[in-house]
Amino acid sequence: PDAPSAQAAAEQAALIALADFGHDAGQARVSTRCVPADCQAAGTAVTVTVNLTVPLPFVPFNEDFRLKASEVEASSTQLVGRFR
Questions:
Q1: Could you tell me the pTM of the whole model?
Q2: Cα distances (angstroms) measured from residue 33 to each of 37, 77, 81
């Protein structure tokens, strides 16, 4: 119904997908970009990007000193339909 609700739903969907694969939500960033700026207008291209920091497996350090293997980024773009 409004932009904040849509943003929260997109972030929640991304975090559920991360949890399904065993990734910690605290290691992820979710961002949304809309072209044009009105994310709810028909025909708008909405791009959601997720950045995830992946820790090195089997590294014998405590939680205060975690080495990161890399950062993974994925994005998807969908068009807002004219019928809702």
A1: 0.74
A2: 8, 9, 16
Query: Over the chain, what HEC string results?
Result: CCHHHHHHHHHHHHHHHHHHCCCCHHHEEEEEEEECCCCCCCCCEEEEEEEEEEECCCCCCCCCCCCEEEEEEEEEEEECCCCC
Residue 19, CA distances (Å) to 9, 16, 25, 63 in order: 15, 5, 7, 19
Burial classification of residue 50, based on how many CB atoms lie within 10 Å of its CB (0-12 exposed, 13-18 middle, 19 or more buried): buried
- Gap between the Cα atoms of 9 and 42, Å rounded: 18
At residue 22, φ and ψ (nearest 5 deg) are 80, 20
- Summarised one tens digit per residue, pLDDT across range 46-81 is 999 999 988 776 666 666 665 667 888 999 999 988
